[in-house]
Amino acid sequence: MTGTEVQSYFKNTWRDRVQRRLAQLMFRRMVPVNLTRPVLSICFDDFPHSAVSQGLPILQDLGVKGTFYAAGGMAHMPDGVGGAGFILDDLQRLLANDQEIGCHTFSHLDCGKAHPDVLIAELDKNATFLHHHGVETINSFAYPFGNLCPRGKRITNQRFTSARGVHGKDIVRGKVDLGYLPAIGLECWRDPEAYWQPLRSGGDVPGWLILYTHDVRDDPADWGITPGILRQVLETALSLGYEIVPVGEMVARLARPNA
Length: 259
What we know:
Structural class: alpha/beta
Shape: globular
Strand content: 15-25%
CATH topology: TIM Barrel
Largest sheet: 6 strands, parallel
Radius of gyration: 17 Å
Distance between the termini: 41 Å
CATH class: Alpha Beta
CATH architecture: Alpha-Beta Barrel
Number of strands: 10
CATH superfamily: Glycoside hydrolase/deacetylase
């Protein structure tokens, strides 16, 4: 992926940054994050077939669960950004293994630019697709590109218990906005210290760390990760005393007293 494409993916024009910042300040649903043990949530956006074929066995081997954000329009896509898209059997494998399946719009819509009616139609279409294939509960949402606007955030607040972005820089402590959860990318092209340092800091002062990626392959795309690094990150987290739980489960805990 070229530098221009990377910038485009992160939607970092001045308008995107201003709009995203306004959305972060509006329609906030703040909850306390006061933990006695650090928590990690691992997320797979889009999600490519390899996230299930190569990523899921690692989660199973370690006895942990992740959150897989599905965009129904990417099912059976032969060659997306992260390789082949998920297949319908992947949804059944995730359900059978009690992994969380979340919403990522139907067509990977840029929620920062979409008209509210278009966004609502996309969410409806994705819900219908997932329900048709056995996904009964959809609590978690992730913004494609991490991009949003105030009116889009208001809609997702009404639909989901949480909505996740991509611009996180640190482990979450103190309070967090369930309408825009910060997440740190595990992509192979980024500086590993961007996630190793927050991961290590959780052993000192417990908090909630949300990490995301896309494909899981030996030769990943710019937005993916190798199976070896995924295993290393999760094993390191467990060795530091982290509990690894899906986003939806953690949000449910935070909504209860004494989480």
